[in-house]
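Recap from last week: sequence in, structure out.
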Amino acid sequence: MSEINKVIKSYDDAIAGLQSNMTIMVGGFGLCGIPEGLIKKVSETDIKGITCISNNAGVDDFGLGLWLKSRQIKTMIASYVGENALFEKLFLSGEMEVILTPQGTLAEQIRAGGAGIPGFYTATGYGTPVAEGKETKEFDGRMYLLEKGLKADFSFVKAWKADTMGNLIYRKTAMNFNPMIATAGKITIAEVEEIVPAGELDPDYIHTPGIYVNKVIKGTFEKRIEQKTTK
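Predicted structure tokens:
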């Protein structure tokens, strides 16, 4: 049997099959650990009506801020929205729907979706606007609300190293939402800093097994600092 090789050379090949009105999950936290090249490539297309699931939407003119600028996002499911002036404008004007979700709930929704779990109960958000329209249930004298697992047509993740079979290793805090998101997409694309031959990664240090990854592309990363504090 020939060796599996999931490495692709171009961003056009990476996003092949992506269409308007699809759901895309994007890894990262702020600007840390975001798949910069994949985001930029989509911003250069005419794809519209995206339901985007990500912790936040980058900053104006970088990261997912590029999708805001090109008016490609129809619905944003996120836990933090404080770095984009344009985000605020699109939300207040009604041009973009925003589903603001507690961060831990969002992480668990993605993890559940990737694990094939349709929903789970959490106390987080009960008695707040987060609970509006959701089923509630009492457990041991405490009220909980039902949250649904999340899945996507495409998952974009950023990793430090990959092998040709798609096994991934993340580096430090750039790990953030990426491992959960990698499991929750019908098609998962990993943009990485380094690609090594199969067998070179220590199995004990692999964070995402290659079975979850469909395509791997070597990217070039600016790694922009979101907020620089000198003193």
